[in-house]
Amino acid sequence: MLLPSPDDKLPAPFGAELAARTREDETVLAWMELDLDGRLAFGKGLVALTAHRLLARAPGEDWQEWPLAAALEMRHADHAGVGSLELVTPAGRLARWRYTLNQNLAALRLIGEFERQIEALRTGEAPRLRDEEICASCKAPLPPGEDECPVCARELHEAPSTWTLFRLWRFARPYRWQLISGFALMTGATAATLVPPYLTMPLMDKVLIPYQNGQPINTALEIRLLAGLLGAALLSWLLGWAKTYILALVSERISADLRTTTFEHLIKLSLEYFGGKRTGDLIARIGSESDRISVFLSLHALDFITDVLMIGMTTVILFSINPWLALVTLLPLPIIMWMIHTVRDRLRTGFEKIDRVWGEVTNILADTIPGIRVVKAFAQESRETQRFREANSHNLAVNDKINKTWSLFSPTVTLLTEIGLLIVWAFGIWQVSRNDITVGVLVAFLAYIGRFYTRLDSMSRIVSVTQKAAAGAKRIFDILDHVSSVPEPANPVALPRVSGAISLRDIDFRYGNRSVIRNLSLDIRPGEMIGLVGHSGSGKSTLVNLICRFYDVSGGSIAIDGVDIRNVALADFRRNIGLVLQEPFLFFGTIAENIAYGKPGATRAEVIAAARAAHAHEFILRLPQGYDSIVGERGQGLSGGERQRISIARALLIDPRILIMDEATSAVDTETEKEIQRALDNLVQGRTTIAIAHRLSTLRKADRLVVMDRGVIVEVGNHDELMASEGAYWRLYQAQLRNAEQLLEGNEA
Question: Is the overall model pTM greater than 0.85, yes or no?
Answer without folding.
Answer: no
